[in-house]
Amino acid sequence: AGSTFGMTTTELYEQDFVAWTEKQARELRELRANCWNSPLDLEHLAEEIEELGRSQRHACDSLLEQIIIHLRKLRCAKAEAPRAHWANEIDQFRNELHRRPTATIRQHLETNLDSHDQTAASLTTRSLTREEPDSKPDIPRACPWTLDDILESDDPLAP
Question: Percent of the chain beyond pLDDT 90?
Fold first, then answer.
């Protein structure tokens, strides 16, 4: 993850929106703590700005989990027919995730990869059990991919 130290507020906003929301919320709370005399509702403004950053993180969490679910389905499902659909969805989810790249979000995804993978593995198992009731899906417990593999690979079955 890149450093945001020394960036101007504008640079931070343009390069790492989530870090910008966190900084702006801190600044608003500091202003409030210093008894700034204004009709602005600084605490609620800080909360709303923080929520913008959280929303970005949650959207990226969801996209990452969807990518992992589809990667796991490609690895574990017996059915051939839905494979192209799953691969296309992986491309779409990756494309959407690439629209939101910030150092803060990337670090968040890296830090929480195991948790997202566990959620995705559970959802994959339930989905494949419904889609292929005659077979018991063999879903690996450990994530077989790095974050780079998940986000960057041109081949949905790689590595």
Answer: 56
